[in-house]
Specification:
Elements: H1 22-53, H2 55-65, H3 68-95, H4 102-126
Helix pairs in contact: 1-2, 1-3, 3-4
């Protein structure tokens, strides 16, 4: 039977009163970084294919990858790799039914964010 009150019900949660939690933001960011890593992988594959194809194709691909824009993409891809890895570890912890309470989950969220930034900076300094 059709719901006659369908148009009279409020939307839940309403965007004007909803405050995103750290867990929702980190979950969305995990999906974004996963897709961004696909783009970075395609750029690296293009670079390898250009190296195997011809000298001029490699010069073009290498020019893009080593430009300031390419450096920025690779730096952000490095951060995305660390973030996505640490978020995966966080999910493995949750899959073992540990640290599921709100305080621990929030601490893990901040650990993923802070750890990814720290590991990115350490990787850039070391390499």
């Amino acid at each position: 039977m059709a719901d006659v009150n369908r148009g009279n019900r409020p939307l839940s949660p309403h965007l004007a009163i909803y405050r995103p939690q750290l867990n929702s933001i980190t979950s969305i960011l995990t999906r974004i970084t996963g897709n961004a890593l696909i783009v970075a992988a395609l750029l690296i594959v293009w670079w390898f294919l250009a190296a195997a194809t011809s000298e001029e194709a490699f010069a073009r691909a290498n020019g893009v990858i080593t430009s300031w824009f390419g450096d920025l993409v690779m730096f952000l891809s490095l951060w995305a790799l660390w973030y996505h890895t640490l978020a995966g570890v966080r999910h493995l912890i949750w899959d073992s039914a540990r640290m599921l309470d709100l305080d621990s989950a929030e601490k893990l969220g901040w650990a993923v964010v802070g750890g990814s930034v720290l590991l990115t900076i350490l990787t850039v300094i070391i390499i």
